[in-house]
Amino acid sequence: MSSDFESYEQDFAVLTAEITGRIGKVPKLVVDDKKQMVANVEKQLEEARELLEQMELEVREIPPQSRGMYSSRMRSYKQEMGKLEADFKRSRIAYSDEVRNELLGDDGNSSENQRAHLLDNTERLERSSRRLEAGYQIAVETEQIGQEMLENLSHDREKIQRARERV
């Protein structure tokens, strides 16, 4: 099973390298070529998502004792995928700004700055939301553990009282 996972890893590495190269080329191309490149990158991103899904399925099939290593790899691949999608989103925004500027005939520098600022703020909000959700999960788990401890203590108290009554 790990051989399947490793072949998926190799495919993912090749695919992400191609995507990165193409994303870097988008701003330098003329409009028609950009449209085609954007479509190709979207298709490759979908392939990469499918590869990640296949890799996750393989990880689920791996025995629990060696699953941790593969799970950490999966987390890093998902992070890499997120970065690729964010880079692609930025290149598409730059691409759409260029098309708009060509149609309207203005330079739109302030618009680009505003969009970049909004993207940064959106990413910060998403990170903060994820942190809050993780904190909430920890609080829920802590509460469950506390309830279990209280139940155990209650049972222990009853046992001690019964033993004391016998004595």
Descriptive notes:
By secondary structure, the chain is mainly α. It folds into two domains: 1-107, t-snare proteins (Methane Monooxygenase Hydroxylase, Chain G, domain 1), CATH 1.20.58.400; 109-166. Helix content is 92%, strand content 0%. It has helices at 2-25, 31-61, 64-104, 109-166. The longest helix is centred in the last third of the chain and has 58 residues, at 109-166. The protein is elongated. The model has no long low-confidence stretch (mean pLDDT 83).
CATH topology title of the largest domain: Methane Monooxygenase Hydroxylase, Chain G, domain 1
User: What structural category characterises the helix and strand content?
Assistant: mainly alpha
Compute the CA-based radius of gyration: 26 Å
Query: What's the end-to-end separation, in Å?
Result: 61 Å
CATH superfamily membership of the largest domain: t-snare proteins
Mean pLDDT: 83
Stretches where pLDDT is under 50 for at least 5 consecutive residues are: none
**Count of folded domains:** 2
